[in-house]
Design goal:
Largest sheet: 8 strands, parallel, barrel
Helix content: 25-40%
CATH architecture: Alpha-Beta Barrel
CATH topology: TIM Barrel
Strand content: 15-25%
Order of helices and strands: EEEHHEHEEEHEHEHEHEHHEHH
Bound molecules: NADP nicotinamide-adenine-dinucleotide phosphate
Radius of gyration: 19 Å
Number of strands: 12
Strand order of the largest sheet: 3-4-5-8-9-10-11-12
CATH class: Alpha Beta
């Protein structure tokens, strides 16, 4: 398993992390706890030692599952836990943003309890909260580092100006954002900014919520909220599936690999990329992790991949989002 040195944590970690959003069930059509536990165990067995979670994933469930498995195995110290703050919810499980200093204080203790630990390795603001000054959030988090409850601080889904303001108020070591072969917006400024500032980058949806695994077919019905984006529906879905098939052919022909390996390899070979967060909720979904190692993409390969995508998607790719 490829590894990378994280100066702020003073240790190296696997460049593939386990993402635990889907195993919480929220926005993914429900949870299966036994399968989720087996998935966390399987990630550890395959050499993954970074786990990304959040309180809102299953409204506490995902953090609890991670905490349980790490405690059962007695491996807390060996694993980097990246969790988040800044999303609250009520009895109806309707989430909203709250990154106030008061809320952070409550949240950190709830997360530590669920995770069965007394420190969080990477504590990340889940979404920018327009109702709270970024400096307030930043200062509250830096205080947690001084108290020893948190080791490093990150943000998710922040624009470059938001990261600049946040960093003026305290520490900032990492940035998390959505990035994959089909969703390229971070290339404009987020990734270059992180590279310049030496921030660790953690990329979510590296497999485009399953689309880049090569296992989806035209019959797939995207009913989960997580897959509400345009690329999972109608003609756009068909175009994306055709590109996935072409990328799969390319991966087989050039490297003896499949599209799932190529999608993650492509991310890890981007300058400034640190960690890909591979979302999984069934152990066998991690079988392909091993195939990401042992090859790399040179400039010619990167151009060939871009050309396959441009041919299949045209303006749809530059539109970015979904
Ligand atoms: N900070 C944020 O705002 C934010 C937002 C989104 C995600 N994240 C983090 O990033 C992680 C990854 O992102 P993501 O879950 O959105 O997307 P992803 O990693 O691109 O896709 C995950 C999904 O792809 C499918 N999949 C994975 N491996 C597969 C395989 N080998 N074969 C077939 N299907 C496979 C599974 O879906 P099925 O189980 O349905 O088959 C899985 O739940 C999350 O778990 C979370 O930790 C953070």
């Amino acid at each position: 398993m490829e590894r990378v040195w994280l100066p702020a944590l003073g240790r190296d970690v696997s460049r593939i992390a386990l993402g635990t959003w889907s195993m919480g069930g929220w926005m993914w059509g429900g949870a299966d706890n036994a399968s989720a536990r087996a998935t966390i165990a399987s990630a550890l067995d395959s050499g993954i030692d970074v786990i990304d979670t959040a309180p809102v994933y299953g409204f506490g469930l995902s953090e609890e599952l991670v905490g349980d498995v790490l405690a059962e195995r007695g491996v807390r110290e060996d694993v980097v836990i990246a969790t988040k703050l800044g999303m609250s919810w009520d009895d109806t499980r309707t989430p909203w943003r709250d990154s106030s200093a008061k809320r952070i204080r409550e949240e950190v203790h709830a997360s530590l309890r669920r995770l069965q630990t007394d420190y969080i390795d990477l504590y990340q603001v889940h979404w920018p909260d327009a109702a709270v000054p970024l400096e307030e959030t930043s200062a509250a988090l830096t205080a947690l580092v001084h108290e020893g409850l948190v080791r490093t601080i990150g943000v998710c889904n922040y624009s470059v100006p938001e990261m600049e303001t946040f960093a003026r108020g305290g520490r900032l070591e990492a940035s998390q954002f959505r990035y994959n072969l089909f969703e390229r917006a971070p290339e404009v400024d987020t990734l270059p900014f992180c590279r310049e500032r030496g921030l660790a980058t953690l990329v979510y949806s590296p497999l485009a919520r399953g689309l880049l695994t090569g296992t989806m077919t035209a019959e797939h019905e995207a009913t989960d909220e997580a897959r509400r984006g345009e690329m999972f529906h109608g003609e756009s879905f068909g175009r994306h599936l055709a590109v996935v098939a072409s990328l799969d052919e390319f991966a087989q022909r050039e490297y003896g690999r499949r599209v799932i390996h190529l999608a993650i390899r492509w991310l890890l070979d981007q300058p400034g990329m640190t960690i890909a967060l591979w979302g999984a909720r069934k152990p066998e979904q991690l079988d392909a992790v091993v195939g990401v190692d042992g090859f790399s993409l040179d400039d010619a390969a990167m151009s060939a991949i871009d050309s396959i995508i441009a041919t299949g998607l045209g303006d749809e790719l530059s539109a970015g989002g979904h």
